[in-house]
Amino acid sequence: MDSFPMPDTRRSAPVFHGVADGVPVTLSFADFMAAALYDPDHGYYADPDRQQTGRGGDFITSVSVGACFGGLLGREIARRWREDFGAADRFAIVEQGAHDGRLARDILEAIAGTPLARIVRYFIVEPAERRRRWLRESFDGNPPPIGDRARIVASPDEIREPAGVFLCNELLDAFPVHRVRFREGQWREIRVEVTAPGRFREVEAPIGAATSLLRETGELGHGFPEGYETELCLGVAPWALSVAPIFERGCWWIVDYGYEKEEYYRPDRRRGTLRCFRRHTAGEDPLEAVGETDLTAHVDFSRLRRAAESAGLVFEGLTEQHRFLTRAAGPWLLELERDGTARQPENAKRLRQFHTLTHPDLLGQAFKVAEFSRRA
Ligand SMILES: C[S@@+](CC[C@H](N)C(=O)[O-])C[C@H]1O[C@@H](n2cnc3c(N)ncnc32)[C@H](O)[C@@H]1O
């Protein structure tokens, strides 16, 4: 688990390096996806200089919409610090899946000049060595509170703090998943056969006896149509165990798209939720343009809740993004109204971003915030 989700090269090396003696090998889809996204040289996320998010990349995230998202999260964190944590003199923000560090900058900028900025420490958890180096360089040299507050670490194990907020946006949807298919009354595993470098083929195989995949598919039951496909993200439980001990007292905010179990495994969702994104176009075939395409699957929020509770956290609720952000935006919107400044260009721009983040047809409803806590 130490290196999750970095690929286990003993298993996934053939994805980019081919097969010995031309003998095909098969991998679980999760090993294939880990290599396709995180191979240190060829994976989709390997090159920190390549733009994946935003208009010029492959897909939009709430962070890439603009500074509004981080601005509101920063305000909400500052409020919680004052009201729920009694303005504690030691307080940390921990972000995982920070990508290019944009959200960290937006949050730190939002709290600049407040009493929280004087004491807060902002940790970014980034397992990929190359991206860690790149992030360090990009934070060094920024004026306070950005340059002097951010610490980049390889694993959540390196952080033990008395109090703080953990957050991640679109982290879990980028975790490798196993794929299964329901055929003739039984679940079978969808695996990937590598025949030569860059040449892949899907193969179906029986699910191994006494594996967690067997137990998981057993729990899904058997009321599914012939050919039904879905995904199982086995990495969520070990990940929850890794982030739960970070704070003695804290909040954990997991922002992502996804469903609770009944909705996720609805019998009419016959092709599952796995998607491939390239230049804002959703593709169907995960075995095409490997290393050039984003692969993502929706989050099963029931699984996340079970995992977090087993790791000792308390479930506080699952809220659609528009509700979470509108609540956080209350004081800002009142200020704009009171001061009559809503039309000033910077505020008007943020309000347009707020609309994108909260409108139900844009990002407001598809994205949800799963909130967990631990109280001392
Ligand atoms: C879909 S992108 C989201 C980026 C950013 N949070 C945003 O919202 O724009 C997913 C990011 O999670 C990172 N990631 C995946 N697994 C990770 C892990 N275990 N620890 C830290 N980052 C991880 C990927 O490298 C990638 O940068």
Average pLDDT metric:
94
Radius of gyration: 21 Å
Tally of alpha and pi helices: 15
Number of strands: 16
Tell me, what's the shape?
globular
SSE-based structural type = alpha/beta
The CATH architecture classification of the largest domain is 3-Layer(aba) Sandwich
Helix content: 25-40%
The amount of beta strand, in percent, is 25-35%
- Unreliable stretches (pLDDT < 50, length at least 5) are none
Distinct compounds present: S-adenosylmethionine
How would you characterize this protein structure?
- The protein has 376 residues and is α/β, with parallel strands linked by helices.
- The protein folds into three domains: 9-49 and 176-233 and 260-299, Rossmann fold; 62-169, Rossmann fold; 317-371, no CATH class.
- The protein has helices at residues 9-12, 14-17, 29-38, 62-65, 68-83, 102-111, 115-119, 129-139, 212-220, 236-243, 261-264, 301-310, 321-339, 345-358, 360-364, and strands spanning 25-28, 92-96, 121-125, 150-153, 161-169, 178-183, 186-196, 199-206, 229-232, 247-259, 275-278, 281-283, 294-296, 299-300, 314-320, 367-374.
- The strands form three sheets. Strands 2, 3, 4, 5, 10, 14, 15 and 16 form an eight-stranded mixed β-sheet that branches. Strands 1, 6, 7, 8 and 9 form a five-stranded antiparallel β-sheet that branches. Strands 12-11-13 form a three-stranded antiparallel β-sheet.
- Bound molecules: S-adenosylmethionine.
